[in-house]
Amino acid sequence: MNVYDYITEDDACSLTSEEYHAFRMYLRFLGHKVSDGYGDHSLSTAGSAIFVLMLWDDGDLAWADTVTPAKHGGSRISLEEVKRMAKLGMYYEHG
Asked: Which of 34, 41, 43, 87 is the most buried (most CB within 10 A)?
């Protein structure tokens, strides 16, 4: 996952808490800071279609409007890819 890439709010909400945590661990393993102060899984508005979960240039994974990633050339990451990252994150955390 690169800076300004994002996942849709619906995809983020479909992750279990464990998958979401593991996904964040995977991004940390890649060197992104992914602080706990941003991108709270429970703060989504589920189904609003106006927010995405984006990797910002400072390394945080946080909610953004849908226009921001497009302005910076970000790409949507599929739910399947996020789940693959989460599996690797689980291994990293428990490995």
From this structure: 34
| DSSP code at position 43 | G
Question: Can you tell me the distance from the alpha carbon of 60 to that of 44, in angstroms, rounded to the nearest whole number?
Answer: 16
pTM score above 0.90: no
Cα 51–Cα 83–Cα 52 angle in degrees, nearest 5: 5
Q: Give domain limits for the chain.
A: 6-94
Cβ(26)–Cβ(94) under 8 Å?
no
Report the 10 Å Cβ neighbour count for 58. 11
3-state DSSP helix/strand/coil % of the chain, to nearest 5: 45, 15, 40
Between CA 59 and CA 46 the distance in angstroms is 24
* Contact criterion met (CB below 8 Å) for 39 and 21: no
Model pLDDT for residues 35-67, shown as the tens digit of each residue: 887 777 665 555 556 789 999 999 999 999 999
Where do we find the tokens 């998958």?
19
